[in-house]
Amino acid sequence: MDRPTGITSAEKILIMVELMNRTKFGQRPIHDGEHKWTETGRLNDRQLLARYWGSTKCWYKCQPHHTIERYFGTEYAFYFAWLGFYIKMLIPAAALGLICFTFGLSTCNYKYFNYRSHEICNSDQIMCPKCHQEGCTFEPLRASCGLSKMCYIFENPTTIALAIATAFWCKLHW
């Protein structure tokens, strides 16, 4: 039998086993200290982050970037700083969307703004059946009155302004 000239499969497996035995698993070392707030002793970064950053009571406060960097590392601190900036930049777009929705909700029953729904709700026209089987009946057009008003709430004249503002926002921030 000829002696192999390259690395055999068994040798590859042994090399991998040696590499895995020498590798420390987990990105961060085991967390030191308790995560719950203590009144005695020195506070650790984990306790500070749990109290001032990981709590739902602190949603409006600035993020403790230096503590995040000390505990998680620079990459995670940069990610959370970027995420905080991104969320702050979404607030004006969300406010404009809420204004558009509120406008649609408040003008839904006014004929001047929502004349299409007004025509549908007051119509005497009859619609053809939706299916071709026996038992499908004709419906009056005014049966779609509620759906027409709901459609207007989300698709009113101010949604054009929202679409334009969103396009400018995307171009500006990306």
UniProtKB/TrEMBL annotation:
Annotated Gene Ontology cellular component terms: plasma membrane
Subcellular location field: Cell membrane; Membrane
Residues in Anoctamin dimerisation domain copies: 29-64
Keyword hit for Transmembrane helix: yes
Main location: membrane
Its membrane topology: Multi-pass membrane protein
Coiled coil: none
Protein name as it appears in the record: Anoctamin
Source organism of the structure: Acanthoscelides obtectus
